[in-house]
Each structure stands twice: as C-alpha cells, then as structure tokens.
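Please supply some protein, with fold tokens.
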Amino acid sequence: MQLGFVSAILGELPLEEVLAFAADEGFACVEVMCWPPGKADRRYAGVTHLDVSDFADAQAEHVRGLVQIHGVSISGLGYYPNPLDPDPTHRAMVVEHLKKVIRAAPKIGVDVVNTFIGRDWRKSMAENFALMNEDWPDILKEAETAGVRIGIEHCPMLFGDDEWPGGKNLAVAPAVWRDLFARFPGGRLGLNFDPSHLVWQFVDCARALREFGPHLVHVHAKDERIDRERLYQVGALGLGWHHPKLPGLGDVNWGEFFAALTDAGYDGPVCIEVEDRAYERDLDDRKRALRQSRNFLRQYF
C-alpha cells in the first residue's frame, strides 16, 4: 500500500507545491482535485489542482514532468459533485466535466477517477436508480475507452435539512453497492472506500472491506467521532452528532481496518483526507494535520 493524501486540503497551493510538500514529507502519492475553476458550493469542493477544462498535450506533459521531478505519483483524479442533480442543466454540466476528468487521466498516466454516483434527494431509491441509468452508462463507456476505473465514494452527503432524507449520494451502504455492481458488471465501477462514512451509519467496516475487496480501486483515510451526548439529544435521525476527525482521533478501529484491507488483498493507495475543523485555522495548521495523520498511520505500513 502507498500512503498519500487528498490535495483538497492544500487548495491554495499550485500542483507543483503540493507535490513538493508530499515529497518532502515522505508521502508516496496524492489524489489530485479536478473541479472546474470557480466558486465552491461546499467545504473542500471547488479545488482545481488540475484544470481539465481544455486539457492540451502540453499541459499533460508538464504534469508528467512534475510527477517525475518530485517522485510522487498521482493516485487518482478527484471530482465529487452530484451527477444526479435535480436541475437538468446543472446535471448535464457535471456529467460533461466528469467525462473531461476521465479523458484527462490516461494523458498523465492515471487510471483511477474518484467521484460520487449522486442522488436526487427528493426521489425514492427506485427513482434514483432509474435516473442513474440515464447518464451513468455513458460515463462508464467513457471510462472504458480511457482505460479508467471509477472509484465511487460512499459519503451520504447529508449535511442539512435541505438534503433530508436521502442526502446527495446514492451509493451509501452495502445493499446499494451490490445493486450497483450487479447493474454495472465488468469492474469498471468500483469503490473509493472511506471508513468514516460507515462509522456513523453503524455499518461494520471490516466486514464491508472483506465482502467488497475485489471492488476496491482507491481508499481514503479519515476518522469520524460520534458525539454521544448530541446523539442522545437528537437521535440518529437528527443532525450534527458525528464529526470528521484526523485518523486516530475518532471511532474508526484502524487496526481492524488495515487487517481487513490486507485480508482483502488490497495493495493500492491510502490517501489521508483532512476534514477536521480543529485543523483549519491556516495553511500551517492543515499541513500539521497531514503530518500528524501520517505519523499515526505509518505504523500500519
């Protein structure tokens, strides 16, 4: 396995400085964010370390050169919007940009693109599966042409009352994953696995890894702390009772997690994803978050 990090936490730095930091700190890889340039609609979104809007061969050559200079690989390209957004115009824009990310990946020697399936939170599961069939076959065809695997992250994307009850991502738990892989067989669609999203859904993370090991294409390392007092007050259907934390500061059993990863035969990238509000004061704080996470996780590598 290769220890790396998700570039979103260093959003103000250019790609060259992100790779230089990774090299200096002993990271093997970086997942590079590829949002279209512009204003972000949520925390950690809108980061453009690689602009694929009009990705020319000269740009690709420059990126390949940076990778070679710094000796840090790109584990995958990341773009995490809602491809099933209820606004058809926005959905079309999202899908087109996702295809651009997929086309850019092989130009720089990358074979993984990470994203969400998406969801229209106002519709039922069955209606969302029908909606998924409108765009996702074309997305996966694009991935097949590019020789790219798609890593679906399984965060429910449920953060506020306006997203209740379903959140903005369909692929949240094992029952849905089985359905997804049955609908789209062949291995082009896989999982970008993040244990933090299962902790607060009370899903057995190790069991999920062992069952879905063959579908793993990428892994995020993020912890999640359950606030038991808040959970007592609002119940599981309430909001605000779980919080992203650095690895080792939450409720993920990391020994069990890495034991299950190795049992599953996974030998790919594990990228730290920093979303801990306690480490957001400034750039130095966020760099410290990456170092602290690295120091904790090294015992498992």
About this structure: The domain at 2-300 is CATH 3.20.20.150 (TIM Barrel). The mean pLDDT is 95.
